[in-house]
Specification:
- The chain is mainly α.
- The chain is about 55% helix and about 0% strand.
- The radius of gyration is 25 Å and the shape is elongated.
- The termini are far apart.
Length: about 120
């Protein structure tokens, strides 16, 4: 096996990727958020020193696991935001939030830019 020990060190450029590939349960959220996927993949595909094919496979598995965790975190954050929005506009408070019947659409000129747009004309 040929690779530099520095690459896979805990503080090295691919240390978090290595941990994700082999010790997925010990991966913390801040480690996942701090990992840049595109930089990591570039350093695996074009390493500074030659690495074994098996090692690059393990590292790519780590990248996939980190990407999966990032997607899960984003999914949970979006669900939390959706639940909070639904609670904010629930039926109990909808009387104060609903638009009047005649305000269902906006006038054309208020949502469309003019043909010639100049900042000096805006008042």
């Amino acid at each position: 096996m040929f690779y530099s020990q520095y690459i896979l060190a805990k503080k090295g450029p691919l240390g978090t990727i290595w941990i994700a590939a082999h010790l997925e349960k010990k991966l913390r959220k801040n480690q996942v958020n701090d990992t840049n996927i595109s930089t990591s993949v570039d350093s695996i595909l074009f390493p500074e020193v030659p690495i074994a094919l098996r090692l690059s496979g393990h590292l790519l598995l780590g990248v996939v696991r980190i990407y999966s965790r990032k997607v899960n975190y984003l999914f949970h954050d979006c669900n939390d935001a959706l639940v909070k929005l639904k609670n904010a506009f629930s039926s109990a408070t909808s009387a104060s939030v609903d638009l009047p019947a005649d305000a269902a659409s906006a006038p054309f000129h208020s949502i469309t830019l003019p043909e010639t747009f100049e900042f000096d004309d805006i008042d």
